[in-house]
Amino acid sequence: MASNTGTTLLALLTGAAIGAGIGILYAPDQGKNTRKKISKETAKAQKKLNKQLKETQEALATTAKDTKLTLEQKLEGAISSASYKADDVLTALESKLEKLRAQNAKLQLDTKKAQADTAAKKATV
C-alpha cells in the first residue's frame, strides 16, 4: 500500500516539475531570472521527493516490523500447538507400551506355566 502511494506521489511530483519547468521556459523573462526560477523549482521538487521518500521508507520499515512480529507470533503459536500434539501422541504411545508390557508379562507367565505343566506331566509319566 505504501508503495502505491509512493509511486502515485512520485508521478504527481514528476508531472508538476515538468509542468513548472515548461512554464518557466516559455515565460518571457531574462535568462538569469529563468535559471533562478528553475533552480528554486528543482530544489522544491527535490525537498518534496526526499520527504516522500523518507515517509515511504518509514512506512515500509513499520510494515516490515509489524509483519515480522505477526509471523513470530504465528510461529510461536504453531510450535506451541505442535508441542501439545506431540505430548498427546507421546502419552498415547506410553499408554500403549504399558499395555503391551503387561500382555508380554502375562504371555511369559503363561509360557512358564505351560512349560512347568509339560515338565510335570513328563515326570509323572
From TrEMBL:
<feature type="coiled-coil region">
    <location>
        <begin position="90"/>
        <end position="122"/>
    </location>
</feature>
<keyword id="KW-1133">Transmembrane helix</keyword>
<keyword id="KW-0175">Coiled coil</keyword>
<feature type="transmembrane region" description="Helical">
    <location>
        <begin position="6"/>
        <end position="27"/>
    </location>
</feature>
<keyword id="KW-0472">Membrane</keyword>
<keyword id="KW-0812">Transmembrane</keyword>
<protein>
    <recommendedName>
        <fullName>Gas vesicle protein</fullName>
    </recommendedName>
</protein>
<dbReference type="Pfam" id="PF12732">
    <property type="entry name" value="YtxH"/>
</dbReference>
<dbReference type="InterPro" id="IPR024623">
    <property type="entry name" value="YtxH"/>
</dbReference>
<feature type="coiled-coil region">
    <location>
        <begin position="35"/>
        <end position="66"/>
    </location>
</feature>
